[in-house]
Amino acid sequence: MSEQSAPSPSPAVELSSDPAGPLPQEIADALKRDSAGLVAAIVQQHDTNEVLMLGWMDDEALHRTMTTGRVTFYSRSRQEYWRKGDTSGHVQFVKSVALDCDGDALLIRVDQIGAACHTGTRTCFDGRDFTVVTGHRE
Questions:
Q1: DSSP 8-state symbol, 11
Q2: Which of 8, 37, 103, 111 could make an S-S bridge to 32, C-beta 3.0–4.6 Å?
Q3: What residues does 58 pair with on adjacent strands?
Q4: How confident is the model at residue 21 (pLDDT cuts 50, 70, 90)?
Q5: Angle, alpha carbons 60-106-130 (nearest 5°)
Q6: pLDDT value at 14 more than 80
Q7: What's the whole-number average pLDDT of the chain?
Q8: Is the pLDDT of residue 19 over 70?
Q9: Which region holds residue 120: left if phi is over 0, alpha if psi is between -120 and 50, else beta?
Q10: SS3 label, residue 101
Q11: Alpha-carbon distance 105 to 76, whole Å?
Q12: pTM of the entire structure?
């Protein structure tokens, strides 16, 4: 991670109501994208703080997410947009969107309906723990 902090978009950025419209320049400038133009989007349940999944967004997916009330991702494997829940019924209703201090990750807080994972589990992390040596505070 970078030691330098990314510019913070102001909370009062004006958004177009057109979900296909452009992402506001102030937000677009704050994002640090990977070589494919994508930013990691961590999805968290708004009331329990469960980390549900990780998806990928480009500017258009983020704009759709911010202007429609539903989460849209960009599928790296299919090279297309997908709105969570359109085929499964496991909808994610947007509650808030935040950018991390480095500008390279988003936190999307949602109200998740049904399973978040395509495997049918509540989160993409359920039952996938590694055995680790745990640390302890002195």
A1: T
A2: 103
A3: none
A4: low
A5: 125
A6: no
A7: 87
A8: no
A9: left
A10: coil
A11: 16
A12: 0.81
Q: Are 108 and 42 a contacting pair, CB within 8 Å?
A: yes
Record the tokens describing residue 24, joined without a space: 């506001």
| Rounded Cα–Cα distance for residues 23 and 59 (Å) | 6
Structural tokens at position 77: 């494997």
Facing residues of 70 across strands?
93
Specify burial of residue 98 (Cβ count, 10 A radius: 0-12, 13-18, 19+).
middle
CB 58 within 8 A of CB 107: no
Q: What is the pLDDT of residues 65-105, one digit of tens each?
A: 999 999 999 999 898 999 998 989 999 999 999 999 999 99
C-alpha pair distances (Å), 47 with each of 18, 44, 110: 28, 9, 9
* Residues in contact with 108: Cβ distance below 8 Å, sequence separation at least 6, in sequence order: 41, 42, 43, 44, 65, 71, 92, 94, 96, 97
Nearest to 24 by CA among 34, 12, 13, 10: 13
Q: Which helix (H) or strand (E) holds 27?
A: helix 25-30
